[in-house]
Amino acid sequence: MSRLVVVSNRVAPIDEGKQAAGGLAVAVLAALKKTGGIWFGWSGTVVEGESQSEPKRTDVGRLTYATVDLGRRDFEEYYNGFANQTLWPLFHYRLGLISVSRRTLEGYQRVNRYFADRLAPLLKPDDMVWVHDYHLIPFGAQLRERGCEQRMGFFLHTPLPTPEVLIVLPNHQDLIRSLCAYDLVGFHTEVDLRCFTDYIRDYTDGEVSEAPDGGMLVRAFGRTLVARAFPISIDTANLESLAETASRSRHTERLKESLVGRRLIIGVDRLDYSKGLPQRFESFEHLLANYPEHCNRVSFLQVAPPSREDVPEYIAIRRELSELSGRINGRFAEFDWVPIRYLNKSFGRRVLAGFYRVANVGLVTPLRDGMNLVAKEFVACQNPDDPGVLVLSCFAGAAREMGEALIVNPFDTESVADALQRALTMPVEERRERHASMMQTLRRHDIGWWRETYVDALTRAPYR
Q1: Which of 207, 350, 442, 457 is at a distance of 20 to 30 A from 373, taking alpha carbons?
Q2: Is 369 a catalytic residue?
């Protein structure tokens, strides 16, 4: 069996890896334990001066963690710059937030070259390389330039915008040409796949047809590759078990006691403008204003750990949410009840699983999201005998698989409030039926299915 080499912007610290903390970490570690191989990427360390480190290698059984540090300038131009101030807002349709700079583009390309220079000597001829996310789109092309002929796959964890949006990027054709250096390109949804193939048809001389084993066969820029949708998922069985035990934990009991019998709406999101948090707060305000019977009877807990704290747009949204929660609480709060509990902090998986279990409504309303695993985690953690209701944005990739949720447009805040009212008053029989149907999907298409389906498709993709 070929060895698997996984490349991601960040490599999960070894102690986090043992806990299988995130969806990608769960999938990557399981795949690497099965085939043996390397997990390569940035260590998370920023050093003064240039990025010049050789990979730091740590062997754990058949798995090698190989990480490199980034110099300060590369971190600012590659990560804070082009990745998060150009590609991230572009891919999430926030054109007004895009910053275009030749300097940050060069930093993005320079770091991809640096990564390729460090990984290429570690590769064996029969390795399979699996590259993840928008930070590393040019990485496969950089390996090809260094003579690497290994089978290579790429997976995009964000949405891919329509061609009409993508061409806002001055180097849009270079970006798509880089994607075509891979043998397999994976997306979360058929919508993202269609955006890619539409670009190939409309903005290149390439051709698109159906692939024999699924997906689309793309011929462009002198390459033949397969593009296909692979919706990422969660470790469903593990989360079900975790939530059941966490329901009796100290943190969960404290949350229950603090509610004093009130019902709970929960949102859990990284603090990011793509998550629709201001609109979500306004939707909850409309719920209390339009359905006053919920005043002093429902609490909204929003967990929003800060991220990219030195990027101006993230500083602005943190301030906006603090002001919104303060205004809404000032309008509706009673001496013994605060409507919104807004927490800028992280919680572990076990604690969150217990919180999900307690919640009556999961409010997941991003303005644009590749998948959004919180939606799936909330459903998996519910008590099947008395499940809560998922209110889910139509702009989350998860909505393509979870049609039994209450699907909403997050920009229509009053309609979201109506959906919250429906969720809070839904009969238990309907809640059970909707939950059971979504659980069938989550058990059938869990994180293991995602991993195996992608790796199997990579082994069968066109190969020179």
Answers
A1: 457
A2: yes
